[in-house]
Design goal:
Largest sheet: 6 strands, antiparallel
Number of strands: 10
CATH superfamily of the largest domain: Regulatory protein AraC
Radius of gyration: 25 Å
Keywords: DNA-binding, Transcription, Transcription regulation
Protein name: AraC-type DNA-binding protein
Strand order of the largest sheet: 1-2-9-4-7-10
CATH class of the largest domain: Mainly Beta
Number of domains: 2
Structural class: alpha+beta
Distance between the termini: 46 Å
CATH architecture of the largest domain: Sandwich
Number of helices: 11
Strand content: 15-25%
InterPro entries: AraC-bd, Homeodomain-like_sf, HTH-like, HTH_AraC, Tscrpt_reg_AraC-type_HTH
GO molecular function: DNA-binding transcription factor activity; sequence-specific DNA binding
Length: about 290
């Protein structure tokens, strides 16, 4: 492979078994390739147990993964393991490929590689300001200014990249996608009417879809059922109301859509593993102003 093009590549060989047990950085860099001798064959490389993430900044690259070839334009990235049946290269029809990359290793890196690729595949689309891409740029800036001094530091950055990747594809990405109109109507309705005694039929009616199509679309879009979504809204509101000692559990139950305190308490405990009264009175539980529920 020709290495006469513009590039900044950094490699790391720190001591410490924690990198193998968790994650470590093997290489990271930013490159511009203009020669068609730029070819990496995943079955001819000597590295083993490594995970390569490469993101296109400008130009056009390509990757073959088994029997399928993908064009990699600006904003697109791939995630592959070494060794495996893939080959990435500067295609004949492209004059330039500018990209950033990071290569990781370790048990957790391989674990998340498997988790990600089994669910989402090998090819991704990322905005330049998305979490994983900003993390690589931050790392490059850190390396170029103060460097990475030891394996613990490198391992922390490697694991942070994996978490930024997961957060983007599991949470941030779904927020960036505009909700289907029927789902947007239902979500708005639930956020306004959570205190009412709502049924699934009430939510379906607002959507304008059949119950079958609505429930499937809602679960696919929001990753929870309509009733689970409603319950999360109610529990968040309940936690806020529990800070007001003038309100009884019965009062709070009615204000968040439950007919009686007993049923409300059962639901609350099923979500938070503690009853509303215990949450309010037990000083070992730190009160919060806003609750985030997965």
């Amino acid at each position: 492979m020709n290495r006469n093009n513009s590039h900044k590549a950094y490699g790391f060989h720190f001591k410490g078994e924690h990198q193998e047990r968790v994650a470590g950085i093997y290489t990271i860099g930013k490159e511009i390739r203009t020669e068609h001798t730029y070819i990496w064959d995943g079955l001819k490389r000597s590295e083993e147990g490594k995970v390569v993430f490469q993101y296109t900044l400008n130009g056009n690259g390509a990757i073959r993964i088994e029997d399928t070839t993908y064009s990699l334009m600006k904003g697109q990235a791939f995630l592959v393991k070494l060794p495996s049946d893939h080959c990435y290269y500067l295609p004949a029809e492209s004059n330039q490929w500018e990209f950033i990359y990071i290569t990781l290793f370790g048990t957790e890196a391989l674990h998340y590689y498997t988790l990600i690729t089994e669910k989402y595949g090998h090819i991704f689309q990322f905005p330049t300001n998305s979490r994983p891409i900003k993390q690589i740029f931050r790392l490059l800036e850190k390396i170029e200014t103060t460097g990475i001094l030891h394996g613990y530091e490198a391992s922390g950055y490697a694991y942070s990249f994996l978490m930024e990747f997961m957060q983007y594809i599991e949470h941030d990405q779904s927020k960036e996608v505009e909700l289907p109109l029927a789902i947007a109507k239902a979500v708005s309705f639930l956020e306004k009417k959570y205190a009412d005694d709502l049924t699934l039929d009430d939510i379906v009616k607002v959507s304008g879809l059949s119950k079958y199509h609505f429930t499937r679309l809602f679960a696919r879009t929001m990753q929870v059922t309509p009733i689970q979504f409603l319950t999360k809204i109610r529990m968040k509101q309940a936690v806020e109301l529990l800070q007001d000692n003038s309100l009884s559990i019965e009062d709070i139950a009615k204000q968040v859509g439950y007919r009686n305190g007993n049923y409300f308490s059962k639901v609350f405990k099923s979500i938070l593993n503690i009853t509303p009264s215990e949450y309010r009175n037990n000083q070992s539980y730190m009160p919060v102003d806003q609750l985030f529920i997965d």
